[in-house]
Every structure is written in structure tokens, then in C-alpha cells.
């Protein structure tokens, strides 16, 4: 079983890393159905939907990271 605070901390670290690139995903958070499953092997972090501008910002940040 996974610790809820560990999963939440990971989601917050991801939120902060995205924010450092000027990217905000308002729906980012712990996917509660996978966390609450009887035998959760790996809880999911839900990234949620984003608009075209945010998607392009994600693409640019990811491309910059591999350059």
C-alpha cells in the first residue's frame, strides 16, 4: 500500500517543476480511484486537461530539457 502523503508530495513536486517553466495544470493531483483501489500497485497522478497554449509550453519545456 502506498502512503497518501508520498503520492501527494510527488504531485506537488511536479506542480512546482512545471511552474518553474511557467506551466500550470489546474487539474494536476492524485488520481483518487487508483489510490483507493483494493490493491493499488502504483497510484496515478492525474495531469488533467490543458489548452493548446499549455500543451505547446509543455512541448517547448520538454524539448529544451533534451537539448
Give the distance, in angstroms, between the N- and C-terminal Cα atoms: 38 Å
The arrangement of helices and strands along the chain is HEHEH
Strand order of the largest sheet: 1-2
Multimeric status of the protein: single chain
How many H/I helices? 3
Q: Can you tag this structure with a few keywords?
A:
67 residues; mainly alpha; two-stranded antiparallel sheet; elongated
Could you explain the architecture of this structure?
The chain has 67 residues and is mostly helical. The protein is 52% helix and 6% strand. It has three helices and two strands. The chain has helices at 4-19, 32-35, 52-66; strands at 29-30, 45-46. It has a two-stranded antiparallel sheet with strand order 1-2.
Question: What's the arrangement of secondary structure elements?
Answer:
Elements: H1 4-19, E1 29-30, H2 32-35, E2 45-46, H3 52-66
Amino acid at each position: 500500500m502506498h502512503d497518501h502523503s508520498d503520492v501527494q508530495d510527488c504531485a506537488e513536486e511536479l506542480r512546482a517543476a512545471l511552474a518553474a517553466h511557467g506551466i500550470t495544470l489546474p487539474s494536476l493531483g492524485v488520481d483518487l480511484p487508483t489510490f483507493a483501489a483494493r490493491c493499488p500497485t502504483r497510484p496515478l497522478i492525474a495531469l488533467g486537461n490543458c489548452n493548446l497554449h499549455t500543451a505547446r509550453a509543455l512541448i517547448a519545456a520538454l524539448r529544451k530539457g533534451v537539448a
